Write a sequence for this structure.
């Protein structure tokens, strides 16, 4: 049994240590907000936080997450109050929405480490997340807005 | 349903003129609360529908307004735009709206296409009357009910934010729902004038955002219930191959693998979860029966197409005497264009969940045409369509891939569930998706343009070679006299072609086993590229500014001119650029809208940088302007991706690409600054989902010509195309 | 491939076969011109035992050219780029996700190396290669291989100010034992190997050091 802490809840799963964290989250814990897009760390749809870092869960063996802190999109906030979620609402960022869990989880690390990102910083943080609908211009805008909101009192 | 299939896409667009006058509205009267209750709102509380004046909306006692979408949400915004149409007539509280996809049913047939479909960039214009009418009818009934209760004349009542107001009294729609349900349906409820629109032309925030940013939205991939197993299918490495034999002994040793079954498309490994199924599939050994005739090669295919291009084809457009005029030309542009197969690659890989219980089958999937899936599923099971329930969940992108005539990913999943006797979600990996066929067909264009001494085109001979998309789909009837309109649209009806006195457009539709499909903007994906780069070439040959040259040819096309002029003005066309920057332009009509784009590029050590795309669209009334802008941005990035990276090639019948590392998608750092401008327009309403795609590749390639002096005629762009004197 | 469109394609201009090998007796350019031979060797941390066998400039330069072939192979060079972005593939294209070095060489923001690169190679073709310490040299010690001539690279390798403050013995240990170096010979499915076997590489490296760690002439 592998013990996991996901969104501050404890779980024990009977999974092979090499099983990717993605499929443990989705198929064993029912946390389907984290998406499967490529299975080879190319698209970022499966991005979750492992001890605060934006790991690609499709290539991360669950063993690596044992006894560590995992946060998924379901744990970003419980009430849509994360500045990024507010900004996503304000800018009408998403289209089909399938990649957006990953976009948000990546953006959250960027804002934590750089509360004032430039366009260049956004490129350097977000170019691992593919969006086939092409929402990049709005993702960019919304990250700037979230940074602004954060400065004005919202917190991460 | 089959009788309605005989429709021609081009005709659909032309019907839009009569459409605004109140065309067919299969309004589903009498609608009943029972029908609404069947729709799976799942509500057992006060939000449950008690008043359902038609098939498109229902109201619960707690003021909830359920809106049922005849079109599906695949990113394009139907989830928000259709409710806007209802809300503007119904005067309901926007916050009380709950949206869901319709099941396959007659009231949800496309008002122009005659079957239930989301495609052809048609949702907004095709529902503009029907959904407003649905809202207006409901409002009239609520007002009647309120007037009766309050003992006032209906004319003295007004409505706002989910209330009927009469003097100092107001009644909520929820309070009135039961009484309104007993009213006889009114006839011919007038629609509001544009001056009273609150949402139309202004927009509203997307209604699907909250659940798509907190992980709660359910895509097909996310369907789960107790007992549901996951299947991966090992398919033939060559299209058309059949299973000869298979050995699953190692597969069955993988923990979690439950079953291995043969289905018509291959061998399915069924397991407790995806990972076990994937490992099981990797351990599977299958021997394939492959007909050597099916083993094609991209290179050989182009050679075949080249031979065919020089023969006589089906005539798509003809004027004057091309053969007689070409020899008289003082110079000839002789161009061969090669445009490869392209995969849609929606972010959500294909999947379909099927549960067969006795004489019923329930399906959950993201599809652009649930009724087609229902029919095809029923055929496999020997059921009547009504024995098959299709639950359409959110589509993680469509772009055409989730509307195949064969229902490929649905029928396969039905076969898997049938063979296994279990409820199964059949999931495609990205590799399955990229290699699974249903591509934008590869096309060759062979063009000879004869110029006179003044560099004016006097003869235009245009041969198009590529597989037919419509053949084998419900739209097959659209192929007339050997012409699949989806192969030639944008060439045979090009305004440029019309002004060349001698022209001939011919089509060849060779057949092979590579499945092809509409791919966001369909024929325009290649025809706009060919036409808009050739026009640029003609402008340069004539020594004219590419914009001025186009304007002269487009005199009788006000929508082309309005889009072109707006894009040109906003882009600063003609103003000086920083050293090393170049501009290119393109304008193209598709799906009832005209879009012009100006690209600004530079080339640095053989690397192309696309800095800026200025886009203008004339789509008639823009019901949701920010939604239109989003679709332009989306289309531009989609088209740019294809231009830079898009290519599916075959070697020995095997698709060479397999995932995002070798079928690349544009990323954030490669994305240009995009500005979108909507031309004020009272022209007939057109689409937005696709028309942003066609102009981007030619605009950029024309800018590359400005930089390098080289014409690019094969896509995607290759490094050698960028070498030069830039 | 079209991948090159967005990448600066770096073709190692060097043709090893064509490189002239000739004895070099003058002090190394990177060192003070007045450095005495003995002091020089001390500075280079070459121990006394090796000192006795050295000064075979020809053999040393020749050994380094073998070492150089390995260092310039994609498995080594891709993480020793001249810019602040790692490279990928045998064509040394820029990492397609716009991955950055970051101050510590471990990437930036949501694109830190370990977000995709696991402690071990992920099985399968084109899957992320892995190592517990997957990283680039840090920003203040970038140890660039890309674009360096054999002479430039040899001088850089010997200079503690440019080689991560390593003595020659530590360098030998590094190329012999460091798991990230060793990864080059276990790079995961489908990746080409460096042109020399690891043992041969170490042997040549040691020979280079033992014969005076001479930098080949330009």
């Amino acid at each position: 049994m592998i013990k996991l802490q996901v969104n501050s809840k404890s779980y024990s799963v009977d999974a092979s240590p090499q099983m990717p964290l993605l499929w443990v989250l989705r198929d064993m814990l029912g946390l389907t907000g984290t998406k499967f897009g490529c299975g080879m760390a190319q698209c970022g749809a499966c991005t979750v936080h492992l001890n605060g870092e934006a790991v690609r869960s499709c290539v991360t063996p669950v063993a690596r997450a044992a006894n560590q802190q995992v946060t998924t999109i379901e744990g970003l906030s419980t009430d849509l109050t994360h500045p990024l979620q507010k900004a996503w609402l304000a800018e009408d960022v998403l289209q089909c929405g399938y990649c957006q869990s990953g976009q948000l989880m990546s953006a959250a690390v960027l804002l934590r480490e750089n509360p004032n990102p430039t366009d260049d910083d956004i490129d350097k943080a977000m170019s691992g997340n593919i969006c086939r609908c092409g929402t990049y211009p709005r993702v960019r805008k919304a990250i700037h807005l979230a940074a602004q909101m954060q400065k004005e009192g919202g917190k991460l | 349903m089959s009788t309605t299939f005989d429709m021609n896409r081009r005709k659909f667009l032309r019907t839009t003129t009569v459409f605004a006058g109140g065309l067919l509205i299969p309004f589903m009267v009498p609608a009943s609360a029972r029908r609404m209750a069947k729709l799976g709102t799942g509500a057992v509380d006060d939000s449950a529908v008690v008043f359902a004046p038609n098939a498109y909306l229902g109201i619960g006692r707690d003021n909830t307004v359920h809106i049922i979408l005849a079109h599906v949400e695949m990113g394009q915004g139907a989830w928000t735009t259709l409710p806007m149409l209802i809300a503007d007539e119904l005067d309901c509280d926007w916050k009380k709206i709950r949206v869901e996809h319709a099941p396959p049913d007659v009231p949800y047939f496309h008002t122009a296409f005659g079957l239930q479909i989301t495609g052809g960039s048609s949702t907004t214009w095709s529902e503009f009357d029907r959904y407003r009418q649905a809202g207006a009818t409901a409002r009239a009934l609520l007002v009647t009910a309120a007037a009766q209760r309050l003992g006032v004349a209906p004319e003295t009542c007004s409505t706002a934010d989910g209330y009927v107001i009469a003097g100092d009294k107001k009644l909520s729609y929820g309070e009135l729902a039961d009484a309104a349900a007993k009213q006889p349906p009114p006839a011919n409820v007038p629609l509001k004038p544009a001056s009273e629109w609150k949402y139309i032309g202004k927009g509203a925030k997307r209604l699907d955002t909250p659940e798509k940013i907190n992980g709660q939205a359910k895509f097909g991939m996310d369907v789960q219930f107790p007992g549901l197993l996951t299947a991966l299918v090992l398919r033939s490495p060559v299209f058309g191959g059949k299973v000869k034999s298979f050995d699953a002994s190692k597969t069955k040793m993988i923990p979690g693998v439950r079953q291995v079954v043969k289905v018509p498309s291959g061998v399915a490994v069924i397991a407790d979860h995806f990972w076990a199924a994937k490992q099981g599939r990797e351990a599977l050994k299958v021997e394939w029966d492959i007909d050597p005739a099916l083993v094609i090669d991209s290179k050989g295919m182009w050679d075949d197409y080249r031979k065919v291009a020089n023969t006589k084809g089906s005539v798509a457009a003809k004027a004057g005497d091309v053969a007689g005029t070409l020899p008289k030309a003082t110079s000839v542009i002789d161009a061969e264009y090669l445009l490869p197969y392209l995969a849609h690659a929606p972010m959500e890989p294909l999947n379909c969940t099927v549960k067969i219980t006795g004489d019923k089958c329930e399906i959950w999937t993201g599809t652009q045409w649930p009724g087609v899936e229902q029919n095809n599923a029923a055929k496999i099971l020997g059921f009547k369509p009504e024995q098959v329930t299709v639950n359409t969940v959110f589509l993680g992108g469509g772009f055409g891939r989730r509307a195949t005539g064969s229902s490929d990913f649905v029928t396969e999943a039905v076969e898997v569930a049938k063979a296994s006797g279990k409820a199964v979600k059949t999931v495609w990996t990205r590799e399955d998706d990229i290699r699974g066929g249903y591509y934008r067909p590869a096309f060759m264009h062979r063009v000879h343009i004869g110029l006179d001494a003044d560099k004016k085109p006097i003869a235009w001979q245009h041969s198009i070679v590529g597989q037919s998309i419509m053949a084998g789909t419900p739209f097959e009837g659209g192929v007339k006299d050997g012409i699949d309109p989806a192969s030639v649209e944008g060439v045979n009806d090009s305004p440029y072609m019309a002004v060349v006195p001698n022209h001939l457009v011919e089509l060849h539709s060779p057949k092979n086993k590579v499945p092809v499909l509409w791919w966001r903007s369909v024929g325009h994906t290649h025809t706009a590229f060919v036409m808009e780069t050739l026009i640029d070439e003609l402008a340069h040959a004539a020594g004219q500014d590419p914009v001025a040259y186009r304007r002269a040819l487009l005199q009788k096309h006000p929508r082309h001119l309005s889009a072109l002029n707006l894009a040109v003005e906003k882009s600063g066309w003609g103003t000086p650029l920083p050293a090393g920057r170049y501009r290119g332009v393109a304008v193209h009509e598709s799906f009832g809208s005209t879009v012009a784009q100006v690209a600004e590029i530079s080339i640095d050590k053989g690397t192309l940088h696309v800095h800026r795309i200025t886009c203008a669209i004339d789509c008639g009334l823009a019901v949701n302007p920010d939604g239109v802008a989003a679709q332009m941005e989306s289309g531009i990035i989609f088209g740019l991706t294809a231009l830079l990276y898009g290519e599916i090639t075959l070697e020995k019948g095997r698709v060479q690409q397999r995932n995002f590392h070798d079928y690349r998608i544009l990323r954030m750092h490669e994305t240009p600054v995009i500005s979108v401008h909507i031309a004020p327009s009272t022209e007939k309403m057109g689409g937005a989902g696709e028309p942003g795609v066609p102009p981007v590749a030619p605009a950029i390639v024309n800018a590359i010509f400005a930089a390098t002096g080289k014409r690019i005629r094969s896509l995607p762009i290759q490094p050698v195309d960028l070498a030069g004197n830039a | 491939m079209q991948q090159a469109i967005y990448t600066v394609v770096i073709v190692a201009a060097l043709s090893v076969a064509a490189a002239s090998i000739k004895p070099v007796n003058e002090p190394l350019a990177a060192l003070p011109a007045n450095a005495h031979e003995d002091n020089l060797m001390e500075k280079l941390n070459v121990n006394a035992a090796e000192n006795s066998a050295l000064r075979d400039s020809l053999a040393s330069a020749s050994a380094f050219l073998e070492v150089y072939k390995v260092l310039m192979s994609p498995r080594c060079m891709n993480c020793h780029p001249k810019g602040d972005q790692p490279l990928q593939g045998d064509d040394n294209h820029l990492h397609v996700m716009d991955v950055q070095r970051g101050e510590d060489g471990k990437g930036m923001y949501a694109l830190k190396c370990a977000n995709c690169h696991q402690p071990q190679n992920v099985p399968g073709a084109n899957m992320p290669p892995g190592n517990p310490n997957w990283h680039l040299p840090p920003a203040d010690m970038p140890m660039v291989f890309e674009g360096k001539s054999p002479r430039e690279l040899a001088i850089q390798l010997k200079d503690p100010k440019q080689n991560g403050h390593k003595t020659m013995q530590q360098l030998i240990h590094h190329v012999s034992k460091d798991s990230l170096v060793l990864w080059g010979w276990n790079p995961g499915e489908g990746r080409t190997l460096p042109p020399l076997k690891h043992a041969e590489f170490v042997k040549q490296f040691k020979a280079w050091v033992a014969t005076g760690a001479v930098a080949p002439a330009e």
About this structure: The longest helix of chain C spans residues 57-71. DSSP finds nine helices and four strands in chain C. Chain C touches chain A through 19 residues (CB under 8 Å). Residues 102 and 108 of chain C are 5 Å apart (CA to CA).
